[in-house]
Design goal:
CATH superfamily of one domain: Gamma-glutamyltranspeptidase, large (L) subunit, C-terminal domain
Low-confidence stretches: 1-17
CATH topology of one domain: Serum Albumin, Chain A, Domain 1
Largest sheet: 7 strands, antiparallel
Radius of gyration: 23 Å
Helix content: 25-40%
Strand content: 15-25%
Distance between the termini: 52 Å
Bound molecules: 6-diazenyl-5-OXO-L-norleucine
């Protein structure tokens, strides 16, 4: 055998051994996935991590084991998800992080939502006839907002963390560089979105093999460009992403394809602290995301309306309970479409929308026996009550900190566009603006002036990272993906725990319902009984059974113990305690 042949056979064997070792270690984690999905929650005393990918959970769990706090673990989880779950984990998107420090007795929110580029215009998504062109707002370079994730995560670490950015990013870099074993979910996702991703050479070469075929379950997936980008950030800090080579690659990508994001937009991007929305539901303090997300506002508004009814007596998913929930949801989503937007640009009547008095007014409109047609519901007037493929993870530590983080590139795989040479996907968050009043976005959500496109504005979101406290102590950490369904998914886990006394895994797994005012229908997951559906129909509700909603990764803390529940709707999700 000649030397070259010998060398290449040796390389092949070495690669096989390496792959097998990696496979075995990742398989061991898969064992704990099954463990995590029994019908009782995973328990921990010193910490708990729940994310939608077991490798991210594992990376974050190690950070806690090594003495890091929940914020350190959160930053590690987020960067690891950016590698292992490119459909939603990201550095090319944005999101919101709620941090609760029990010791400091405060809950703060970091807003790292994307911003419209400086050159964005109100009519940028309208065609010549003045019609909204969703192809442009969803699948072109114009669809991307200025990404906030890297700056947001760094801000969290700097203000509340204990480890360096380099240490927090190390597990993600290793996963990108050495690769990870493809799961069926990973493989299926890329097969499903083939058309959208293969449209762009930069995406094709990252997510498909050189001959255009698929990565199959059990194979190794390596991301060299992404590894190099992450390394540059970890070595040079966030300046690299916003002013360095990564920014240059992103801006060059824009310039080649008619996008708007400029070096100036990148340099000017800044995340910020926001005061979370605060409400109280049956003695529990609810903290959730404030504008530019609509999530917290409407979670609290709907809970306020429902507080007036003996929900626990009516029972979980009974026709009566679902009727009242749907009626409350309708009214909240009607208000959403009118009032909600980025508070840096528009005045949102937040205090009114979340006040108990306003909820009382809305409750009076609800007929306990009959559905109100959405066509007769418009936004109400909260002003008199003024005294003024997303992914979520939840983490708690032994120091009393909790992190509830939801971040996104909007659709599964965002715009489908990878930044050439940088290896990450761009968001298509600009579609969350209202392209034209009365024209729904991808989630059927309507918007008006408050959410019109404006330069440097943040587009309205539904993301609802939430922390619930009881008697000043962290009690529930929760949140979900799911577009317009995020708000109602989060709401139901809160209700399932507080009203229906379910353990956290049952609360997460239970069938969910959703109403968003328009379309005028209650969307339900499979699992509701036919007689419940029939009763709701008799009350004039339109019922539509559709696919599963959300993926709510949650933690409950009770009697000093931490209970984690990964949503069984995500096959790769994992709760792990320590
Ligand atoms: O910010 C929002 O509300 C949306 N861009 C979230 C998108 C989403 O959850 C998609 N995932 N399922």
């Amino acid at each position: 055998m000649n030397r070259r042949l010998l060398q290449s056979s040796f390389m092949r064997v070495a690669a096989m051994v390496g792959c097998t070792v990696l496979f075995m270690s990742q398989l061991a984690t898969a064992g704990s996935i099954l463990e995590g999905q029994r019908m009782h929650p995973v328990q921990g005393k010193e910490g708990m991590v729940v994310t939608s990918h077991f490798l991210a959970t594992q990376s974050a769990q190690k950070v806690l084991k090594n003495g890091g706090n929940a914020i350190d673990a959160a930053v590690t989880a987020a960067f690891s998800l950016a590698v292992t779950q490119p459909r939603s984990g990201n550095i090319g998107g944005g999101g919101f992080m709620l941090i609760s420090s029990e010791k400091k007795n405060e809950v703060v929110a970091i807003d790292y939502r994307e911003k419209a580029p400086g050159k964005a215009t109100v009519d940028m998504f309208l065609d010549k006839e003045g019609n909204a062109d969703s192809q442009v707002s969803r699948y072109s370079h114009l669809a991307a907002g200025v990404p906030g994730t890297v700056a947001g995560l760094a801000m969290a670490l700097e203000q509340y963390g204990t480890i360096s950015l380099k240490d927090a990013m190390a597990p993600a870099i290793k996963l990108a560089e050495e690769g990870f074993i493809v799961t069926p979910r990973f493989s299926d996702g890329l097969k499903k979105k083939e058309k959208m991703l293969k449209k762009w050479d930069s995406s094709l070469k990252i997510f498909y093999k050189a001959d255009g075929t698929y990565y199959e379950p059990g194979e190794l997936f390596i991301q060299k460009d992404l590894a190099a980008t992450l390394k540059r950030i970890s070595e040079n800090g966030i300046k690299e992403f916003y002013e360095g080579k990564t920014a240059e690659l992103l801006v060059a990508e824009m310039a080649r394809h008619g996008g708007l994001i400029s070096m100036e937009d990148m340099k000017n991007y800044s995340p910020g602290f926001r005061t979370p929305v605060h409400g109280n539901y049956r003695g529990y303090d609810i903290y959730s995301m404030s504008p530019p997300s609509s999530g917290g506002t409407h979670v609290v508004q709907i809970l306020n309306i429902l507080e007036g009814y003996p929900i626990s007596k009516y029972g979980h998913n009974s026709a009566k309970t679902i009727h009242l929930m749907a009626e409350a949801m309708k009214r909240a989503y009607a208000d959403r479409s009118h009032y909600l937007g980025d508070e840096d640009f528009v005045k949102v009547p937040l205090k009114g929308l979340t006040s108990k008095k306003y909820a009382e007014v809305l409750r009076k409109e609800i007929d306990p026996e009959k559905a109100t047609p959405s066509a007769t519901i418009a936004q109400n007037n909260p002003l008199p009550y003024e005294s003024n493929e997303t992914t979520h993870f939840s983490i708690v530590d032994k120091f009393g900190n909790a992190v509830s983080n939801t971040y996104t590139i909007n659709f599964s795989y965002g715009s489908g566009i990878v930044v050439e040479g940088a290896g990450f996907l761009l968001n298509n968050e600009m579609d969350d603006f209202s392209a034209k009043p009365g024209v729904p976005n991808a989630y059927g959500l309507l918007g008006g002036d408050a959410n019109k496109v404006e330069p440097n504005k943040r587009m309205l979101s539904s993301m609802s990272p939430t922390i619930v406290k009881k008697d000043g102590k962290n009690f529930l950490v929760t949140g979900s993906p799911g577009g317009s369904r995020i708000i109602t998914t989060t709401l139901q886990v809160i209700m399932n725990v507080i009203d229906h006394n379910l353990n956290i895994l049952s609360a997460v797994a239970a069938s969910r319902i959703h109403h968003q005012w328009l379309p005028d229908e209650i969307r339900v997951e499979e699992g509701l009984s036919p007689d419940t559906i029939a009763t709701l129909q008799e009350m004039s509700h339109e019922i539509k059974v559709k696919s599963a909603m959300g993926a709510i990764q949650s933690i409950m803390i009770k009697d000093g113990k931490m209970f984690g529940a990964a949503d069984p709707r995500r096959s790769t999700a994992l709760a792990a305690g320590l």
